[in-house]
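Course assignment 3, question 2. Fill in each field.
Student: A.L.
Task: Predict the tertiary structure for the chain below.
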Amino acid sequence: MLAFFSVMALADQVVLKNGDRISGDILKSDSKALVIKTEFAGEVTIQWSAIDEIHSTQSLHVEVKDAQPATGTITTEGGNLVIATATNGSVTIPKDAVLNMRNSEQETAYEKTLHPRLTEGWTGGANVGFALTAGNSETKNLALAFTADRKSLKDRIALYSNSVYAANTTAGVSVTTANSIQSGIRYERNLTGRIFTFVAGDFQTDTLQSLDLRSVYGAGFGYHAIKDDRTTLDLLAGANYTRENYTTLQRNIVALTLGQELTHKIGKSTLLTQKLYVFPALNEAGEYRATFDFGTVTKISKWLGWQTAFGDIYVTNPPAAKKRNDITLTTGLNVTFAH
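Answer field:
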């Protein structure tokens, strides 16, 4: 019994309104729920409204509504939290005034997200698809893609690149049936919790469309119409400058940028992404360019998955004898990374 109560004395305790007591290490909380790590049940999430008392043996970092943050051990008196700080003595606050609460480890991780180094916080992956045949006809198909995304509380950097190459050799005659490369970068800066501004650059080549290089430089504003753990829906609007270098002609286009981007988690292992953009030209009446992308990635393991991607680029005014649509469909392995 003495050993049992000694362990209890060294643990944080949460007392619920129904009288139950939960002991362990308090990790973090917000105004909705508290997470405590127990010895036998692991991490337990408790609704904040169900908590009657909190008693901590470790120092907790507490963010308070309309007041300065405070750090110290916590007890409960008369429905209020009493924080024993090292510099200001005991600070009493209403339980409902707590915005966030974190232990030292969680606070260190949180502070790193406020000021991350440029090399930190990256997630992404590489997709590889390859097919080869030999015999009466020889074919080669290669699809490569790379994405990298870095999000902080204040901004976001997104990089992407993909390429598709295919060739067919029959009776000693080799014909390239696909050869295109796309890449781009976008930087976003949060203005509020919902509104952000962005600048972007996109580049594309397509041998079969006689496109040597298309360069698109744009900027504008975005709005997070939906932003939760499973779904994000962004609406974007702005302007862009496009320079197209075809084998037979060159064009400079000033256009609007109108688009939406959707990501949605299906179950625990599949991520769906979809993008739709329209670029109406301002200096060429009735002309526009549109892009549509749709893809899924299903996790096989922590770092390996299976991806499928569909893309369509539509141009109203391609060079003579060239088609308006360029459609790609790829599938293959996806290798993810995080840093």
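Instructor remarks: Residues 51 and 123 are 36 Å apart (CA to CA). The longest helix spans residues 104-114.
Grade: pending
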